[in-house]
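Hi W., the S-adenosylmethionine complex you wanted:
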Amino acid sequence: MDKARETAVRILYEVHENGAYANVALAKALRQLDLGEQDRRFVTELVYGAVKAGGTLDWILRRYVSRPVRKIQPFVREILRLGLYQIFYLDKVPASAACNTAVDLAKGMGVKGLSGFVNAVLRTAVREPEKAAFPSGKGHATENLALRSQHPEWLVRHWVRTFGFEAAEKLCAFDNEQPVLSVRANTLRTDREALLAELAAAGAEAEPSQWAPEGILVRHHGALDALAPLQEGRCQVQDESSMLVAHVVGPQPGEFIIDCCAAPGGKTTHMAALMHDEGRILAGDIYSHKLQRIEENAARLGIQSIETEEIDAREIGEQYEAMADRVLVDAPCSGLGVLRRKPDARWRKTQQEIAALPDLQLAILESAARAVKPGGVLVYSTCTIELAENQGVVSRFLEQHPEFELETTGHYLPLPTKHAESKMVQLLPHIDGTDGFFICRMKKMDQTDKKG
Ligand SMILES: C[S@@+](CC[C@H](N)C(=O)[O-])C[C@H]1O[C@@H](n2cnc3c(N)ncnc32)[C@H](O)[C@@H]1O
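Structure:
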């Protein structure tokens, strides 16, 4: 049996049946199996490709199978998805090879009795591809965009309503681009120039980020485990837009900072670097197992000033009333600005889940606000482009809290951009060419502010 395809089917099964994250399940399988470099690449291509195509592949499958997709035996369902993915999206695989290997997989993976069914479905797809032509023409524009860009239709419809059709089309295209590895130089140990030189010497193709002074985009690199500056704590993987947040918080050496939703610690460790590791940062998260990630990152980067605490951010205010110089709320959010980094994410989101987020975000922000000292700073950020989770939450908060003043967030961005005068900074993938991100800085008034 074809080892690469069998591995891909098993990973797809983990993702779809057991809720595993595609990148985690893939990394685990590749660690456990002794596959050659070519097979590893092929498995990766198959898994990411089929996971990303998700609902679109099932739409195609429904053209050739009359029973509901959810009623097909789970391994057979994954074998069919993988077969269709190769037939419709992988030019380099001949259709006959896609069919034959799928039949072999069914025989070898304990579903031999259904190998005839697999054969019939896939051969019909090869013979009659026109059955899977996406609907087009008047009245089908949104459905067509969703199918061809491999996004859920409800999401595309929502983006078309919010941003317009053309922007929605660009957003979808952005999500399908290959994300570039972005790293932040750990200024406690090196600087950007030195890191660029080190990466170049190691054969990586790297260039400075236009958004963050410590940011580097690494276009060509080998395995991350072999990237010495990463392993030895001279840099941290972090998206460029996410690097802006610590600058907007503006932590100073010696201060007490609270990072309410901190795991895995990208922004916490960045703030520690900006403070020259002098002062105290409390990194809280509701999940204890995630705190370990913050501790590992801090240790790798050589940081002493971070302490972790398992705490629901909605209780931060009560425990740390008016104690912090600055508080960051990097809120749990829908993540709709970073879909290109997680091929399975777009198919996991639900409208109900997203609709419930603003109330949670507001509750966290309200509690976090109590922990800010008079005269201190409160920053709210998300990696989404949802108005209700961003501007909506901040407006509701400010209406209830006249003791906070909205600052011109754009003034705190580290490099000149067209957002320099924005009260709230919203980066949009289709306009800014970065991950979607929202940042807003507020100040808690003290006595002198009130008199003024
Ligand atoms: C956007 S992520 C944070 C990313 C992190 N700031 C970084 O830069 O690496 C949001 C985090 O909030 C945590 N979280 C969710 N609900 C929470 C709550 N009620 N209180 C505290 N943390 C929470 C999640 O576990 C997740 O780690």
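The first helix runs from residue 3 to 18.

W.
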